[in-house]
Amino acid sequence: MRVLAVLVHEDNIVEAHMAGGVLHLAAKMRYNPNDLR
Known about the structure:
By secondary structure, the chain is an all-alpha fold.
């Protein structure tokens, strides 16, 4: 993972991190809609 971080540009890392967060949130809403506190 750390090697990937070195090879990928910082902007791409931020975008990938944000996209991962959005996907995680969407999956959480889809599979456990009652757990949105």
